[in-house]
Design goal:
The complex is a heterodimer. Chain A is mainly beta. Chain A is 0% helix and 50% strand. In chain A, the strands form two sheets. In chain A, strands 2, 4, 5, 6, 9, 10 and 11 form a seven-stranded mixed beta sheet that branches. The radius of gyration of chain A is 13 Å and the shape is globular. Chain B is mainly beta. Chain B contains no helices and eleven strands. In chain B, strands 2, 4, 5, 9, 10 and 11 form a six-stranded mixed beta sheet that branches. In chain B, strands 1-3-8-7-6 form a five-stranded antiparallel beta sheet, with no helix packed on it. In chain B, β9 and β10 form a beta hairpin. Chain B is globular and about 40 Å long. The chains are: A mainly beta, B mainly beta. Chains A and B meet through β5, β9 and β10 of A and β4, β5, β9 and β10 of B.
């Protein structure tokens, strides 16, 4: 039982490049989330998926897209990376909306 | 405009003593509060939560207190142990929704 897994762990991109961050959970959770953490700012919600087939914007969605591929997987895509997207990205899941969320280990992304 | 504030970036406590971490919020519609703990290079892990219908919730060495009139919550750890050294985030939501608003975190150091 791995919980929430994220790939890759580290990534360096040049401005304008695209990439997809992958997230998978094996807890049969309905809801999944993407956050970013910047120094001194805590975690901020980018997008969430309340259940398979649905996605919605969080607090800071600009510059990102998401796909809920199936119940297990929720990916985050940066179409044209910008230095302002340098951050640590965390994926999380929960059984239902509003219940405690389980986080993956994070992806550290640097955009130069 | 931070809705959830952790005004102490760091706290140092002797092993065996009490650690008190504080959190203030501005949104009176918040009705569900959580504390997460984060070790370096790992994702946050859920620690304890409290609903607005309560003013106290205990789980072993951890107790969370909620003062709705002051819009203030605190996490007490008694006794503190070196393994408690981590960053602690408080988070809040409205109607127990998916949208968790996180504070910026307090780094706790428990000295042996």
């Amino acid at each position: 039982n791995a919980g929430v897994t994220q790939t890759p762990k580290f990534q360096v991109l040049k401005t304008g490049q695209s990439m997809t961050l992958q997230c998978a959970q094996d807890m049969n959770h309905n809801s999944m989330y993407w956050y970013r953490q910047d120094p001194g700012m805590g975690l901020r919600l980018i997008y969430y998926s309340a259940s398979e087939g649905t996605t919605d914007k969080g607090e800071v969605p600009n510059g990102y897209n998401v796909s809920r591929l199936n119940k297990r997987e929720f990916s985050l895509r940066l179409e044209s990376a910008a230095p302002s997207q340098t951050s640590v990205y965390f994926c999380a899941s929960s059984e239902l909306e509003g219940w405690e969320q389980y986080f993956g280990p994070g992806t550290r992304l640097t955009v130069t | 405009d931070q809705q959830v504030k952790q005004n102490s970036p760091s706290l140092s406590v002797q092993e065996g003593r009490i650690s008190i971490l504080n959190c203030d919020y501005t949104n009176s519609m918040f009705d569900y509060f959580l504390w997460y703990k984060k070790y370096p290079a790992e994702g946050p892990t859920f620690l304890i939560s409290i609903s607005s219908i309560k003013d106290k919730n205990e789980d072993g060495r951890f107790t969370v207190f909620l003062n709705k009139s002051a819009k203030h919550l605190s996490l007490h750890i008694v006794p503190s142990q070196p393994g408690d050294s981590a960053v602690y985030f408080c988070a809040a939501s409205e109607d127990s929704s998916y949208k968790l608003i996180f504070g910026s975190g307090t780094r706790l150091l428990v000295r042996p």
